[in-house]
Each structure stands twice: as structure tokens, then as C-alpha cells.
Design brief:
mainly alpha, elongated
């Protein structure tokens, strides 16, 4: 039981370190945003956040 818990904590710690390597090693670096509206590629494709799409749809429905 204790071995499983320690192994789980070790795996999570390794994952966190690997995910933050760029932030740790590069001066002034930060985590990249994972939000759809922050992706230039998706904006060019016309893909929006579901919340923004909902607002647009509700505004169009009110106009009719």
C-alpha cells in the first residue's frame, strides 16, 4: 500500500518537473496558455471558445 502511494507520488513529481522544464531553465519563461482564444492558428481557422460561440448564437437569435 505504501509502495503504491510512494510510486504514485514519484510519478506525479516527475511529470510536474518535466512539464515545467521550460519554465525552470529559461529566464523569463512562463507556461503557455491552453485556452482556445489564445491560439493564433485556431483564430485563423475561425474556431472560438464554446462560451464565445454561445454568446454569438444568443446574440443572433435575439436579432430575429
Amino acid at each position: 500500500m505504501i509502495q503504491t502511494l510512494l510510486l504514485s507520488v514519484l510519478i506525479i513529481a516527475i511529470a510536474v518537473v518535466l512539464l515545467s522544464v521550460r519554465v525552470i531553465l529559461q529566464k523569463g519563461a512562463s507556461f503557455k496558455s491552453q485556452h482556445i482564444h489564445d491560439s493564433e492558428y485556431l483564430r485563423k481557422k475561425g474556431i472560438h471558445c464554446v462560451i464565445d460561440q454561445d454568446k454569438e448564437a444568443r446574440a443572433q437569435n435575439r436579432a430575429y
